[in-house]
Amino acid sequence: MKIIISLITVISFGWSIGLQALNIPNDAYSLALSGSGIGGQLDIWINPSAIHLQDHRSIGITHRNWFGEISGEHLSVNWNRDKPKYWSIQSWNVNDLDLWGDIPQEEPTGKFGVRWLSSSFTTGFDMNEWQGGITLRLNYVRLFTETMKGITTDIGVVRKLSPNLNFGVVMRNIGYEYSDSLRHHLPWSLGTGIGLMDLFYSTDVMIDAVIEEEHGFLFKIGAINNGEYLSIILGTIINKDETIFSTGFSFAYRRWKLSYGISFHKNQILGIPQFIDLVYHF
């Protein structure tokens, strides 16, 4: 049975329900941007320093569909403008997986699921001419009889070089995960980027260069056309294996904001990632 569990673990991690879930965007905004915007201070998941530009207290919920049968929810709360703070809890689930025993047979012996839970807290800090943010995240994975838990940290900083130009740096997934007293290495990433804010016709453009341990060098470009009520979002990721395109929109009216993001991969037979957010400002 241990062999079967180990095989399922490898497959599930390859589908981003294990350690790889650390690199999945939290919300529709970051998905639509393809994770770009390190210098833009647009999204806390992309760069924790974005917490400095959270103008209102808010509560938000996101429904997320990833590859295959993977789905999840994300709940976030932002408060205290003077000393900005952000808290979120998220989950990923895969249900009704077939369980096979050690002896070959025509039917599975039963069904089981995989669950990934994470809770994070983000706050900001100032360092001379830099604005920074730090995210502390607790993670928990349950796979049949196996469990994995740990703690990770993301750190990001942004400096305004001119009224329309920002420069940012972010380091993600600093920490460890443990299962059965064994320590697992995390898929770290290091990125830098510039944000060209209000470049033309109320459009922000982000250009990032990221090194990920799992995928090597990534080049990311994102753009947002900001309207009074409706904003259009575009993003792309370029690496040696493929080019991934994303798009979406954000509609804001009074205290409410609705966002939608979708990402197009070459392996669309596994499904198309789609996220939808609803945020209330108070």
| CATH class term | Mainly Beta
Q: What is the count of helical runs?
A: 2
CATH architecture: Beta Barrel
Shape: globular
Strand arrangement, major sheet: 1-2-3-4-5-6-7-9-10-11-12-13-14-15
Any overview of this molecule?
The chain is mainly β. It has a single domain, classed as monomeric porin ompg (Porin). It contains 2 helices and 15 strands. It has helices at 2-14, 28-32, and strands spanning 58-65, 71-79, 85-99, 110-127, 130-143, 146-162, 165-179, 182-184, 189-200, 203-212, 216-226, 230-238, 243-253, 256-264, 274-281. The protein has a 14-stranded antiparallel beta barrel. The longest helix has 13 residues, at 2-14. The chain is globular. The termini are far apart. Mean pLDDT is 84; it is low at 1-17.
